[in-house]
Amino acid sequence: MFDVVSIGEVLIDFSPNGKGKMGNPSFEMNPGGAPANCLAANTKLGGSTAFIGMVGDDLFGNFLIKVLDDTGICTKGVVKTKKAATTLAFVTIDDTGDRDFAFVRKPGADFMIEKEDIDLSIIDDSKILHCGSITLSDDPGRSSQLYAMDYAKKAGKLISYDPNYRELIWNDEPKAIRMMKEALQYADIVKVSEEELAMLTGCSIDDYETGARQILDSGKTAVFVTMGGKGSYYLTQDEHGFFPGFRVDAVDTTGCGDAFMGTIHYFFCHHPEMKVSEMVRYASAVGALCASAVGAIPALPTMQQVEDFLASRK
């Protein structure tokens, strides 16, 4: 049985790589996409995962399938299409490691997936279904993802959700909020940024405790609010607290939130007896290590690397 199956986008992140021979900015092709990044974090820690999604029948799609396979993520649920190209994202990074995105996605293969393309047996054979909101931006991907979430809910699976709001994907904030809230109804485990929490709850961006409580009280199991280098807040029926995170020299923060969530998935499945505060400590370490290298999936650590990192920070 798989720990987690994700449905959504897997795409190419073109990350900055200095300058080319002509003196112009150079970009390196890296695998990315939040749902896939989450799976990779879990898999590298020792978990078992599978991906459901669509890529273009092109150079980039074939590259992504190979990366997922090489990482140990089951690609039985990945479908290739000739109707659209694989989605691309060009990443720019500032001096603090924070990034911005420019997407090539009109249309992109990720949101072209139809209900008939979804192998429901993969959801049957998993403990958790993890989703984001980027595929919700357009049909048929929107209807297909909600269909999968509804199926998983009725099958008694835990549903994990990270809105992962990207303004350039939506270009319509009210619509984005409406769709993010619709998916939120299915979720048991929720991870949000401060900005996403404010969008979903109407609370002040600084009042993360009230916002997290509002989401938890709507019938959730756990809520995690990630705040980049400032740390993270966690809330369940039995525990709550703030973890300040680990200070590192950030190179590229792409995928750090996904690394955090993938680690939470791993411990929910393999060590459910562990205190949530301890899960968050490990998740924060994985996020910090991810920030210390370029790219998302290539930067994710193994469990031994995490243990070594935590030992060095005692």
TrEMBL record:
Q: Which InterPro entries match?
A: PfkB_Carbo_kinase (IPR050306), PfkB_dom (IPR011611), Ribo/fructo_kinase (IPR002139), Ribokinase-like (IPR029056)
Domain Carbohydrate kinase PfkB: where? 2-302
The entry's keywords:
ATP-binding, Kinase, Nucleotide-binding, Transferase
Spell out the molecular function terms from Gene Ontology.
ATP binding; kinase activity
Q: Which domain of life is it from?
A: Bacteria
According to the record, the segments passing through the membrane are none
Give the UniProt family note. Answer: Belongs to the carbohydrate kinase PfkB family.
Q: What is the protein name given in its UniProt record?
A: Carbohydrate kinase
Q: Which organism's genome codes for this protein? A: Guopingia tenuis
